[in-house]
# Entry
Amino acid sequence: MSVNSTPIQPVPVGLEVLGNSEYSQTYRVGGHDHTLGNPIRHLLVSSQSNDVDFAGYSVPHPSERVVQIRVQMKNDKGRKADEAIVDACDTLKELCQHIKAKVEQAHDNVVKVE
# Structure
């Protein structure tokens, strides 16, 4: 068997939540990589509520399409980690919809020269 004929392992799909505190969690998301991890991390640390103590992400291995996103809240009295990551995902979705609308608008305004 050559090196190039090694079977590729199936990608874990879905979401796995790791951690034993509602205020400090790691989320493993299958089928994604830096493209999702970095903007979510950025939105978490730049959150206007200022209650995220730490947010980071990692891609454990480049051949495995899994991103791990870590969220740690400043105190265990306010917003929970689940709420923070859902808010970040909602914001990212809104940003993507806005960009898509702007691109479609610009595309519609392009004058075709024949």
Q: What stands out?
A: The mean pLDDT is 87. The longest strand covers residues 66-73. DSSP finds two helices and four strands in the chain.
